[in-house]
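HUMAN: Ready with one sample?

ASSISTANT:
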Amino acid sequence: MFERIREMVIKEFSQVFRDRRMKAIIFVTPILQLLMFGYAVTTDVKNITTAVYDLDRSYESRELARRLESSGYFTITSTPASPEELGELIDRGKVLAAVQVNRGFGRDLARGIPTEVQVIVDGTDSNTASVAMDYATRVIARFGKDMGSRAMTRPLAKTGRVDLRPRAWYNPDLRSRNYNVPGVIAIIIMLTSLLLTAMAVVREREIGTMEQLMVTPLKPVELILGKTIPFAVISFFDMALVTTVGVFWFGIPIKGSLPLLTLATGIYLLSVLGVGLFISTISRTQQQALMATFLFYIPAVLLSGFMFPIENMPEAIQYGTFLNPLRYFLVIIRGIFLKGNGIGVLWPQMAALLALGVAVMSLSALRFRKRLG
């Protein structure tokens, strides 16, 4: 039995590596996807085009503008001379934020009198607007604290006798890339595994070699193992490849255990390869397999919590996400990368992923054996 499986695995590897397109999918596409999505998928907001309407023209108002620009979040592109000009800049989309400093700003600061600064943001893009408002609040609050003005620190910095000192754990700089790149790795591995498994089995049927395999001494279970083991090995290699790129190129910290990550990846691949095998049993051509792969892949990504919090989804949809292997693996890979979580914390996700993988692989194997029969 093991000898027949070994020969089947060798045959699959030979067939894969003879195909230039398959080699590109295995070695080149995952890295290109990680580089592209690693830079593109980010919620960080930088270089916000800003206008400063300075009515005070004092040292303090110029220092505030300098603080805003030196923060790295704001780029001052305009200094309007009137409210009408300021409104026109925002209306035409030439600036995303505007700061108005009223007359007497410097004098009031020197006297310790509460003073005001108005921040206007373009709320068309609600995410960018809220982030820009938060950045401006923090910069102005820090400036007010340094200048000894309690009025400008706002409740976020200091209120009465309460000294608030916020601190972010696991991702101190709040870099969205640290959160997104591990998720991108999980998504890339899912797509690669699905395509390899679904397309390879259907290709055997298209070129007529599936019938030749059926008349060999290979049993159905041996044929299934011979088809899935090579793609499991390739998926492990791709996982190591994109993880290396994520750690050394993007500087993503990996605080947890690599053996635990390997174990979790194996459990994850059990369900993903099972889905790919199931797709191969319901498809007659490679085109059908490709369409079915993306029919599963896109909802799996959208309902995984990668883009949108699962808690914000309708309750019925939330229950449906329990059948999504990507949902569990995202928690696992982010926990290992950023928090250094061990199996004592991640075992519920790993157990659910294992149960789902066993169920999907069993269903796919039964369906595959029925098709062979």
Remarks:
- The mean pLDDT is 83.
- The chain is about 65% helix and 5% strand.
- Residues 176-207 form the longest helix (32 residues).
